[in-house]
Write a structure and sequence with these properties.
The protein is of the alpha+beta class. It is built from three helices and eight strands. This is 3D domain-containing protein.
Length: about 160
């Protein structure tokens, strides 16, 4: 009888450990930025506390509601081109309303107009990615699908700043 009780108790402990480990892992992934989802920030408003929290997790700090000058962050940088399968039904217009051109980058958290340095080239945030991507994802516009595929997926240290 005692042996069965010990087995049951051990099983309960093991299940509790597995569940708590899974919860902690999900919590860590969520706040490590790998699964952070945010709504798009608009350029004419100060980001909410929730938006600021996500941006802080991505390494972008705020001072009185404004992005501080020159921050260095590690980001995942991909590339896209103007094709309907990579954008929406109007692949030549960015989320900010601008026409696509060299030097445009998409990011879900930085305000439109934010400048970023990627591989020593200046880009301007004028587009958004799909909602499922967090603050640490940047997507550079390329003229052709081949250029976008050639870029691939890179983890890079980039600098962000706002032109005031």
């Amino acid at each position: 009888m005692k042996r069965n009780e010990m087995k049951r108790k051990n099983k309960t402990i093991i299940i509790a450990l597995i569940l708590s480990t899974a919860f902690l892992l999900l919590f860590w992934i969520r706040f490590n930025g790998e699964a952070v989802q945010t709504s798009s920030l608009e350029t004419d408003r100060i980001p909410s506390l929730v938006d600021q929290s996500y941006l802080y997790l991505a390494g972008i700090r705020f001072s009185q509601g404004r992005v501080s000058a020159l921050e260095t962050i590690t980001a995942i940088v991909t590339a896209y081109s103007s094709t309907v399968d990579q954008t929406n039904s109007d692949p030549f217009t960015t989320a900010s309303g601008e026409r696509v051109r060299d030097g445009i980058v998409a990011n879900n958290c930085l305000p439109f107009g934010t400048k970023v340095l990627i591989n020593d080239k200046e880009y301007e945030v004028l587009d958004r990615k799909n909602r499922r991507y967090g603050c640490e994802w940047f997507d550079i516009w390329q003229e052709t699908r081949e250029e976008a595929l050639e870029w691939g997926v890179k983890r890079l240290v980039i600098k962000t700043y706002v032109q005031n």
